[in-house]
Specification:
Two copies of one chain form a homodimer.
Chain A (H helix, E strand, L loop, with lengths): L4 H15 L8 H8 L3 H13 L3 E4 L5 E4 L8 H9 L6 H4 L13 H17 L2 H6 L28
Antiparallel strand pairs in A: 1-2
Chain A binds a DNA duplex through helix 3.
Chain lengths: ~160, ~160
DNA sequence: TGGAAATAAGACAGTTTTTGTCCGCTTTTG
DNA sequence: CAAAAGCGGACAAAAACTGTCTTATTTCCA
């Protein structure tokens, strides 16, 4: 139940790009040094981000990476799923055929609900939000300072 | 970003106990057969649950495990944390000293928020809820009910 | 009282995931 | 052309996950 280092590095790396301003091309080496992330690892992560279209890569001498969208249009869910793959609390939520409880799994509903909440938080927080929160204290007690509106309960349930 | 097999097995195993009625002593072997969970693995998991006080073990001939509380008083958060340890999206949320961003980590707030949501869902769902078919314990916040998402939802879950 | 039944505890092993590293390749600029 | 940068894949160490096995220890009851 963790966000991996790779996912964390990805967000931090993009945050670094976002701080330079939109369109700016930044080298892996700079991001690596600035955020203290192993360069080769970060390179791999940015390849994923490039494949996902979040970032544009330019090769050659004056190459590097740049954001393809405004920081306000890049959610942390975009980033994390680009790197770690789709968030899935259980296999059955990704591939229903894998669930052994064909007659109605008692847990799928629970896990689905938890998963929805997490995706909700991540999808409501963009790079721009994180930039604005930069002055905020390191370890908030609650969810203070984040754009998580408590009114946002996803209450559309579906028949199936 | 997954609930482990062990955690899932734990909930299923306790659900099995809950179905037998409170106070009933059930053997690992029965639960194992009924839920199709490897016996030795399940034994380990129940040891964790016993250490956490969720379940009482009796050794010897007529031994087995029994719930120490009513199913309505055992949350899935209790169970999962007993087995997997505390839910922590990032190391810094468990041990703030580990966070390298001393001047204010841009991510701790985000992760803390997501983590709170997950723990909220799990802490609002008890064994009794799962027995009833997945509805959650009442909560003033009236937060998200069960599955929102797409085709992954099993057939029996309906709007609550 | 002894044997059978049941959990307790810990060592061990196979697999997968995570976290990187490395190297040869291609692309781009000057 | 040479240097600089990312691309892609192979590789590897470490950790986590998923079990299995063995040896206690406890308890019941014939």
């Amino acid at each position: 139940m963790q966000v991996t280092r790779a996912g964390e590095y990805g967000v931090l790396g993009l945050l670094c790009l976002a701080r330079r301003g939109p369109g700016q091309v930044v080298m892996i080496d700079d991001v690596s040094r600035e955020e203290k992330i192993p360069k080769s690892f970060l390179a791999k992560i940015f390849q994923s981000l490039a494949r996902a279209g979040i970032v544009k890569s330019s090769r050659g001498v004056r190459g590097g990476f740049s954001l393809t969208r405004q920081p306000g249009d890049i959610t942390t869910l975009d980033i994390i799923e680009a790197i770690e793959g789709p968030i899935a609390f259980q296999r059955c939520l990704q591939a229903p055929t894998d669930c052994p409880h064909t007659g109605g799994c008692p847990l799928c509903g629970l896990f689905s609900s938890a998963q929805t909440q997490v995706k909700d938080v991540f999808s409501r927080t963009t790079l721009a939000d994180l930039l604005r929160g930069g002055s905020q204290r390191g370890h908030p007690k609650g969810a203070a300072g984040l754009p998580v509106s408590d009114a946002a309960a996803p209450t559309e349930f579906q028949r199936v």
